[in-house]
Amino acid sequence: MAKPLTLSAALGLIGYVLLPWFGVEYGIFERDWIDAGGLLSPEGASGLLQTPLAGRFYLLLPGAILMFLLGFARLGKPTAGQQRIALGVTLAGLLVTAAPGFLSRWTGLDLPALGVIREPLGYGAMAALASMFFCATTIWSKLGRGNRDAFVVGAIAFIVALIGIFVFYPLAHVLGSAFSPAGGRSGLESAWHTLTGSDLWSVSCWFGGRACGSAVNSLTLGIMTATSTTFLGLAFALLATRTRFPAKRLLRALAVLPVITPPFVVGLALILLFGRAGSVTQFFADLTGMDAGRWFYGIWGVWLGQTLAFTPIAFLVLVGVVEGVSPSLEEAAQTLRADLGATMRSISLPLFKPGIANAFLLGFIESLADFGNPLVLGGSHGVLSTDIYFAVVGAQADAGRAGVLALILLCMTLGAFHVQRQWLGKANYTTITGKGDSGAHAPLSRAHSFLVHAVTVPWLAFTVIIYVMIFYGSVVKLWGLDHSLTLQHYVSAFGVEWTERGLWWNGRAWDSFWTTISLSAIAAPITAAIGLLTAWLLIRQNFFGKATFEFATMLSFAVPGTVVGVSYILAFNAPPVELTGTGIILVLCFVFRNMPVGVRGGVAAMKQLDPSLDEASLTLGANSFQTLRVVILPLLRPAIVAAIAYSFIRAITSVSAVIFLVTADQNMATAYIIGLVESGEYGVAIAYSSVLILVMLVVVTGVQLLFGKRTLRRENRLGQAQGAIAPTPNQAISEAEHVPAR
Amino acid sequence: MSQLAKATSLANFGRVQFTDVVKNYGKIRAVNGTTLSIDPGQLVTLLGPSGCGKTTTLRMIAGLELPTAGRIEIGDTDVSNLPATYRNVAMVFQSYALFPHMSVLDNVSYGLRMTKVPKADAYVRAEQTLGLVGLEGYGSRLPSELSGGQQQRVAVARAVVLQPEVLLLDEPLSNLDAKLRRQVREEIRALQQRLQVTTIYVTHDQEEAMAVSDRIIVMEKGEVAQDGTPQDLYEHPRSRFIASFIGEANLVPCSIERAANGQCHAEVNGVHVAVPQTELRGEATLVIRPEATTLSEGDGAGAIPATVSSVAYLGDRVYYGLSSPLGQLFHIEHTSSVRHPKSSDVVIRFDAAKLRVVK
Predict the structure, then answer these.
(1) Amino acid A740: pLDDT
(2) Is the omega angle on the peptide bond into residue A634 within 30 degrees of 0, that is, cis?
(3) Given CB atoms, is B162 within the 8 Å cutoff of chain A?
(4) Where among A450, A471, A492 does a domain terminate?
(5) CA-CA distance, A358 to A419, in Å (whole number)?
(6) Based on the structure, what is the number of domains in chain A?
């Protein structure tokens, strides 16, 4: 046990001696803190130097504990008693290092002599804490019985700690904020006041009144969108699998589009068609001589936008379901004298039911969590997610209200998530047995086929038009007034000029573009790594509380982006963990928002790996870390690439959480585009969006070309030794698309 | 590798000892207080129907499962809580579990490389071992480029290259077709004899077990049902289960009586059949192996009349179904002609020395 322990303690000590214990203004990568004295100034002093320079004697303790651990690691064979003592000391060290900051934050106490102060923890403190943490897990792993591998125990504890700090800790602050006293009311009263406000629950618009409450709007919209996307998704799934529709590949291609489309871009295209100056609006205005005005903005517009955006997700879920039903059941029905129509009604549709419910709930969750479309198309029709945003950034800047709204939204999505999981647990008819299931699915009857085509073909055409509009809109001078073609929007956004001093990136979009690309590129491999590590723990390890662990890792998918955004600014705007305004908070936000994608991708890929591969490696003398590195990871390469690419893309396209966390320094493309839309610069906004779509298209097709067809077979003779073909990236991406569906 | 099981005294190298080993999965008890001991250099088969605990037992020897209670020793070392990585055993998996992304040579040398044998040495030894299983020159291929039988041999080579104290084989033949199976099991047996390595072999196929084993441990419901040489098990089954599982037999419920002259009789539906001496009394099962019966026409003293109810001609032997006062019986005759057509009347004679009575 000596080696990992020594390494961990030594690294912690190095951090303790060489890195600033507290956070320094502007971060340690800027020169400012070195100019201000570096480690020798009281602000930038490392843990060791805090005592002589700032008189903080309590900071000798972490150093002493790290020294103790280094010494303990040199004991050849410590007894169980000695190990227990070391574990206790380490845990105590963790507590006294981490707890004072939080104590100060939560209680407002100020006891400088004990470290109960409002100072953000810096890299030095982080290193010391991480070091003690892994020492603790290493020692603990040796206390139990044989199979407790230090690496596995460390990994489990690490993931749990991360989820605790970056998912649950922020959500706790939302709760705290919701129940904080405001405007002379006690916390409970003010929360109750917001909770029961008519601006949330009014249903007056159903009876000719002006506006409904935003919670009612969210629910109504959720049900409408879920219904329409499920219906269309099923129609498309049947079209793709049960008819002789010639362009099935086009369907699959279109299904990937929403993945690479920032969520509000479809809304922008709709504005070009149906907005005030939209083509369709103008056409009818000319025809009838009426001024149509802003007729499109409101619940119908948002509904259309969301239906366009989320139908492909329902499609991907339902295609799996429709294909998953065993063909022999349908063939049996036909041999029992059922015609094609009756087979569909009596056998197929009932078997699809769980999948349909699943797609419905998924559409419901997506609609509730959607922020871009309501913001762009909602007009005065507020929904919860936009109301949260305006409660934070608007004139009212009411964190308490934002907290309550976030809680309501969270309860709704978690409720749907819970129902979905319950449902899935009880009724699942799709048959994936691994046995070859011969037979062919029954084609649709003529009547059903006609119906499916009548629904899907016009909608398909509409979708194609929308995407054409995105590119057409970006090269038109001023939509609705001057339709001459121009590249001025692209120049304005992405202009590059050659000057005496070299290249001058004078386009307005460059700053946010490079920030977006670099932060997403940093976040993507971290997301994939954490996601796959979690997947490995879930599939290959057994440990106490695994079900809870799994639920916690999937939870962040059900938390709407706006709620994540609010929770992050509420939690990380003050010591001890102060991150607002930095790029780090954006990266963290991406990592924990998208982690479930990596987990699901990894789980799907790892389930296809024969567990005896791991066991073979273990019996051949490799430990679990070697096994993971040498056997599992190489086999998962396509899944890893897919997870990285997908996390990258999701980071680029995310809006809802990001919009709370961006600053002038760290602006993200999507947030910048929303700003352009709000100031009416549709041309530049669309030009920027189409560049983003192109970038992501290049990433997706590049991944597909490089890794798509690569499998481990050189020929198609699949022996038993070969039970291990990882899915191609695109499979993994479409797997990941229905994450909440599982 | 400090935790690697320490070298054992030569006499006990390869000995496996289970003492009261229990394995639970949640509330399900897979292995129920097993005690067994396997001598060095033997090939021992764990035999039993699916779910009997044989694979769990094997995996506990490998260290892939740790026992819930009890003690497992390999050589002179208590390995009860030692994970697989640190045990000096090697296993051939049912699915072979060849690493599909590594060449055959990388697969075979994997264990050596993981235990820090210098790379060059590892490859030389791997090549030699490939030669041992008749696969020289196949080192650079991927597992997917080999036939099923070749993959199986690679899996064996990968295990024996480590010169393990104990070699474990988990249904190694189940993925091969019937003809290849016979050939490969002979190869495995020959290799085991040559290397003199303690080998534990799991199978549910009793014929396979009989063919390769020095000793067979039959398991039932997580417990050892009987333990002995193949001949022991066949000739002296200790229970109805063993009698039916090992070889073919008519199992007839009977009651055992002891005559005044000390001779034992089994009574079935009023018919008395002489059986060898037994301690059993009262309700029991009469085990009638096909070789204990002869069929003939006509009648005679001590013969039991019967009617041929079915005939199945299998080329080298003939299966007869018989309706008799003892109930439905079957009989196998190793001739290539049908001597008793269906519905003919015959008499059955028993060779009392070959009859067995079990509880």
Answers:
(1) 37
(2) no
(3) yes
(4) A471
(5) 9
(6) 3
User: How far is the alpha carbon of B41 from chain A, nearest alpha carbon, in Å?
Assistant: 20
B10-235 classified as CATH 3.40.630.10: no
Q: Report if residue A490 sits inside a domain.
A: no
Distance CA A505, CA A498 (A): 9
ipTM: 0.78
Same domain, A555 and A454: no
Average pLDDT, integer, range A72-86: 85
Q: What is the pLDDT of residues A327-379, one digit of tens each?
A: 777 777 777 777 788 878 877 888 888 888 888 988 998 899 888 889 888 87
CATH number assigned to the domain comprising residue A645 = 1.10.3720.10
Residues A712, B142: C-beta atoms closer than 8 Å: yes
What integer pLDDT is reported at residue A66 of this predicted model? 92
Look at residue A721 in the predicted model and tell me its pLDDT.
Answer: 32
Asked, for residue A292, whether it belongs to a domain, the answer is: yes
Which tens digit of pLDDT belongs to each residue from A466-491?
888 888 888 888 777 777 888 888 88
The helix/strand/coil state of A488 is helix
Domain boundary residue, one of A471, A492, A526: A471
Q: Which domain holds residue A358?
A: 214-393+406-471
The residue ranges of DSSP E strands in B229-270, in sequence order, are 250-258, 264-268
User: Which amino acid would we find at residue A678?
Assistant: E
Q: Is B95 on the interface with A (CB under 8 A)?
A: yes
Q: Which of residues 68-87 of B touch A (CB under 8 A)?
A: 80-87
By C-alpha distance, the chain A residue nearest B159 is: A620
Q: What are A629's two structure tokens?
A: 């590195």
Instruction: Give the number of other CB atoms < 10 A from CB of residue A176.
Output: 16
Q: Are A611 and A725 in the same domain?
A: yes
pLDDT for B193 beyond 90 = yes
Who among B144, B146, B162 is closest to A620 (CB)?
B162
Which of residues A546 and A295 earns the better pLDDT score? A546
Assign domain B250-358 to a CATH class.
mainly beta
DSSP state of B278: -
Residue pLDDT, tens place only, B317-355 = 899 999 998 899 999 988 878 888 899 889 998 988 889
- Cβ contacts of B129 on chain A, cutoff 8 Å: none
